[in-house]
Amino acid sequence: MAAYSALLSLKSSIDDPASCLSSWTPNTSHCTWAGVTCDSHNHVTSLDLSGLNLSGYLSPDIAFLVYLSNLILAENNLSGPIPPEISALRLLNLSNNVFNRMFPPSTPTSLTSVFSTSTTTTSPACCRFLWLT
Description:
Layout lengths: L2 H10 L1 E2 L20 E3 L5 E5 L6 E2 L13 E3 L4 E4 L10 E3 L4 E2 L13 E3 L9 H5 L4
């Protein structure tokens, strides 16, 4: 699956009442989409959808963003499980959401920063990861 297809799948799993993701269309390069940062090879390296009043869940198709290193979803109303498909992340910010499941057992060892202080989860692993720097 191409990066733009993975991003469109993510968009379809999210309710976007303010149309903040309206630039996410198949007719434009995914590297020009709001919140998306790409490297010189058009690989998605960062996704920052913080503070957009989004709700819904994270599509497991996020796994197809294999070059993604920063995932910032703070200050939204996202819920459901945190997909185990997150892979090569270095920074993960899920703060101020309502995720209601445990962090996946395969949480990446590459993480250097995790922020989830106000996220509702059922896992003590949440707190364990807060101290990574």
